[in-house]
Amino acid sequence: MNPYYQIVKEGLWKNNPALVQLLGLCPLLAVTNTVINGLGLGLATILTLVASNGFISLLRNQIPDEARLPVFVMIIASIVTIIELSMNAWFHDLYLILGIFIPLIVTNCSIIGRAEAFAARNSVGPALLDGLMMGLGFTAVLVVLGGMRELIGQGTLFSQAELMFGDVAKNFSITVIDDYRGFLLALLPPGAFIGLGLIVALKNVIDARLSKQQTAQVEATAEVATSS
């Protein structure tokens, strides 16, 4: 199998940090009450993963083994600081909503884990792709969970899109259910746990069906080969 295809598959589905590794759940569950909040945090996480993987891969031969974790954390913290200051400058209202969860990206186990397990052991190209795919997989879960909670909780999608895209996005909000009184549980932390559990369960069902189909195909191929 093409190694780059394997990296894409691992990041987006097979080893998704939110659905399989179950890492970074604190921000995942805390800020995904709308699509825009989830997308904002997801983009910050993608930038952090790509940049940190790239720098760590580039410097992997110069970083001594006994100091690698402190160096990884320092690199990640520097990148997150740049992202945080940039969001504060250009997306201030969104920055205020995401709050402490932007600097907490530094402690996201999935970022440190990819630095240790992949970036420190591979060249720059695969490391950048791994960071991008892991970030996209994490962001996809943030956006889907945010969409579920926003739709069930307040009957809208893409509310407050102007926080990220400016005044031109004020009309992006979609009211799916008119005169909807809302469902508070969906917007509270228990709703996030329930929503994430449903997404994980759906992934497991899909994986089980795919595995069953592959097994059936292998058995059919074996029968054809035996009969011939």
Automatic annotation (TrEMBL):
<dbReference type="InterPro" id="IPR003667">
    <property type="entry name" value="NqrDE/RnfAE"/>
</dbReference>
<dbReference type="GO" id="GO:0022900">
    <property type="term" value="P:electron transport chain"/>
</dbReference>
<keyword id="KW-1133">Transmembrane helix</keyword>
<feature type="transmembrane region" description="Helical">
    <location>
        <begin position="182"/>
        <end position="202"/>
    </location>
</feature>
<keyword id="KW-0813">Transport</keyword>
<keyword id="KW-1278">Translocase</keyword>
<feature type="transmembrane region" description="Helical">
    <location>
        <begin position="127"/>
        <end position="148"/>
    </location>
</feature>
<comment type="function">
    <text>Part of a membrane-bound complex that couples electron transfer with translocation of ions across the membrane.</text>
</comment>
<dbReference type="GO" id="GO:0005886">
    <property type="term" value="C:plasma membrane"/>
</dbReference>
<protein>
    <recommendedName>
        <fullName>Ion-translocating oxidoreductase complex subunit E</fullName>
        <ecNumber>7.-.-.-</ecNumber>
    </recommendedName>
</protein>
<dbReference type="Pfam" id="PF02508">
    <property type="entry name" value="Rnf-Nqr"/>
</dbReference>
<keyword id="KW-0830">Ubiquinone</keyword>
<keyword id="KW-0472">Membrane</keyword>
<feature type="transmembrane region" description="Helical">
    <location>
        <begin position="96"/>
        <end position="115"/>
    </location>
</feature>
<dbReference type="InterPro" id="IPR010968">
    <property type="entry name" value="RnfE"/>
</dbReference>
<comment type="similarity">
    <text>Belongs to the NqrDE/RnfAE family.</text>
</comment>
<dbReference type="GO" id="GO:0012505">
    <property type="term" value="C:endomembrane system"/>
</dbReference>
<keyword id="KW-0812">Transmembrane</keyword>
<keyword id="KW-0997">Cell inner membrane</keyword>
<keyword id="KW-0249">Electron transport</keyword>
<comment type="subunit">
    <text>The complex is composed of six subunits: RnfA, RnfB, RnfC, RnfD, RnfE and RnfG.</text>
</comment>
<feature type="transmembrane region" description="Helical">
    <location>
        <begin position="71"/>
        <end position="90"/>
    </location>
</feature>
<keyword id="KW-1003">Cell membrane</keyword>
<feature type="transmembrane region" description="Helical">
    <location>
        <begin position="40"/>
        <end position="59"/>
    </location>
</feature>
